[in-house]
Amino acid sequence: MLGLMQDQPLLISSLIEFAERHNGDAEIVSRRVEGDIHRSTWREIASRSRRVANALDNEQLLFSDRIATLAWNGHRHLELYYGVSGSGRVLHTINPRLHPDQIAWIANHAEDQVLCFDLSFLPLVQAVHAKCTTIRKWIALCDADKLPADSGIPNLVSYEAWIAPYGDTYAWPSFDENSASSMCYTSGTTGNPKAALYSHRSTLLHAYAAALPDVMNLSARDSVLPVVPMFHVNAWGIPYSAALTGAKLVFPGPALDGKSVFELIESERVTFAAGVPTVWQMMLGHMQANELKFSTLKRTVIGGSACPPAMINAFQQQHGVEVLHAWGMTEMSPLGTLCTLKNKHLTQSQEQQTAIRMKQGRAIFGVDMKIVDANGTDLPWDGKSSGDLLVKGPWVVKEYFKGEGGDPLVPDEQGRGWFPTGDVATVDADGYLQITDRSKDVIKSGGEWISSIDIENIAVAHPAVAMAACIGVAHPKWDERPIVAVVKKPGCELSRDELLAFYAGKTAKWQIPDDVVFLDAIPIGATGKILKTRLREQLRDYKLPGV
Ligand code: AMP
After folding, report:
1. Is the pLDDT of residue 190 over 60?
2. pLDDT of residue 191
3. Which domain holds residue 58?
């Protein structure tokens, strides 16, 4: 017997309709490429996204056609999020930090029909446009009078001129909720990138889950700053969860330096912010140097790579801001776990609470996870057994776009498919996940594993260290030994021996790195994460002392 409830598909257009009707006055504030602060509302975003939909219809674009963006976080990007997906097309957010050849490859692989870009990416578009064979319309996200006269891009039109002829009357179409809504290519440190293709259903379920109290806890009382880019896994779903809750949105545009982000938090009375550790490192550095304090910020989600305990402590203890450490990946839309305390932790000491907050957190409803050994056998949740992490759930990929890479899922005894994350983790008895490493970054020394994340966390807790990356180096007796590459804070002195002495008592003796390599910079990839492959290449002639 089937239930007798209305069969209404979960569609992204329902989010913007809801935001307009119930929270139409809530603000959308954007720092733009032009440098100004632009003010809009959910009502206006809804109206302009319908004009985008009309403009797309007029271009004879078909259902599921891909519309690409190369854009910062801003109101026009948000209008495209809703106008493109709401009208049944697929929003392809391209990461502008990728190499131009990779961007052209991705645009061709996705068969993008239209590319909308911020003017700061004009040089990039000029470099790639001739190689992008499927794109037939180029749109600059700017006012008509800002369009460069001789861009060299055929028939380039400004976004404002493009939508100007159209009214905001548009009936969002209804279709299968499993239809594709947006796509994002993985960073692809090896081989060609592969695309996660999200659906309306997966996006809506993720938006519901992300807004829950024990997840991001979003509400119409929040002012939300996604520093995490809209070109990387849909800014962790915040543009959708904010519409669902009616939160105010604040977009930083291209200004991601510590000073600009801090000023925006203060001027827009931001209560909730989300970003990767490198961005917060810059902001905390700026605040420390200028003795600044937050007046409104209450919570921040930090994820994308491991959040060092020193950062958790700085936010919590110096600024009274709750850190919600989160783990996820492009293939998971991206949220998998988020770290909030349980009732029983509230009476524990600050130190004990920090030890929990350092973990990547508990599974969000909808995400099922397990850790397995090399034979695929389930490992216990005891906080000690470390194994490969697998996940499944309605917002986890089942395969990549165009079947690239074959079937990625690993079946269990009941034939259910699990996605192998490539991460190595422990889970404790309370269900808190702790990522020890990417499987390819784990250091194997004398048959034992050393977590590069642990080694890095200790290094960045040293007051003279700005950034640290730990890699394994071949060793004749132990297979591999860890070394740590370090960038010093400006004006700080630190010797190899001082840093190695700092490890004493903080980790087992045999896990202490064999050496320290001081660098001016550590290579960072397109999503703000340390590029260990590049670092290993850079240090390929390095020899361990005494070997
Ligand atoms: P991406 O798909 O580019 O977002 O990368 C996902 C990967 O980033 C994960 O598989 C993890 O290896 C890593 N990652 C994400 N969040 C965290 C975190 N909180 N701690 C450690 N690693 C993380």
Report:
1. no
2. 64
3. 12-170+179-255
Domain boundary among 255, 271, 301: 255
Residue 224, strand partner residues: 249, 272
385 CA from centroid of ligand 1 (Å): 20
- Residue 378 DSSP symbol: B
The C-alpha atoms of residue 9 and residue 273 are separated, in whole angstroms, by 31
Residue 449 catalytic? yes
| Domain count across the chain | 3
Comparing 21-25, 289-293, 444-448, 520-524, the range with the smallest average pLDDT is 444-448
Share of the chain above pLDDT 90, in %: 85
**pLDDT tens-place string over residues 116-160:** 999 999 999 999 999 999 999 999 999 999 999 899 999 999 999
Integer Cα distance of 427 and 359 in angstroms: 9
The answer to whether 179 and 200 are in contact (CB under 8 A) is yes
Which two tokens mark 351?
């130190």
CATH number at residue 94: 3.40.50.12780
Selection from 427, 456, 422, 453 nearest residue 440 by Cα: 422
Specify whether the CB–CB gap between 510 and 445 falls below 8 A: yes
77 Cα: distance to centroid of ligand 1 (angstroms): 24
The residue whose CA is least distant from atom 23 of ligand 1 is 305
Supply φ then ψ for residue 279, to 5 degrees: -65, -45
293, 342, 402, 444: the catalytic one is: 444
Is the separation of the CB atoms in 127 and 155 below 8 Å? no
Nearest to 356 by CA among 339, 332, 372: 339
Please work out whether the CB of residue 330 comes within 6 Å of at least one atom of ligand 1: yes
- CA of residue 324 to ligand 1 center, whole Å: 15
Backbone angles phi, psi at 402, to 5 degrees: 60, 20
Q: How far is CA 120 from CA 124, 146, 261, 493, in A?
A: 9, 12, 19, 37
- Using CA atoms, how far apart are residues 263 and 94, in angstroms rounded to an integer? 28
Residue with tokens 């994340």: 453
Q: How far apart, in whole angstroms, are the C-alpha atoms of residue 330 and residue 357?
A: 23
> Given the CA of residue 438, which atom of ligand 1 is nearest to it?
12
pTM of the shown model = 0.92
End residue of a domain, out of 438, 462, 491: 438
CATH number at residue 454: 3.30.300.30
Residues 184 and 68: their CA atoms lie apart, in Å, by 10
Percentage, residues of the chain above pLDDT 70:
99
Ligand 1 touching residue 329 (CB < 6 A): yes
Q: Which residues pair with 425 in a beta bridge?
A: 387, 435
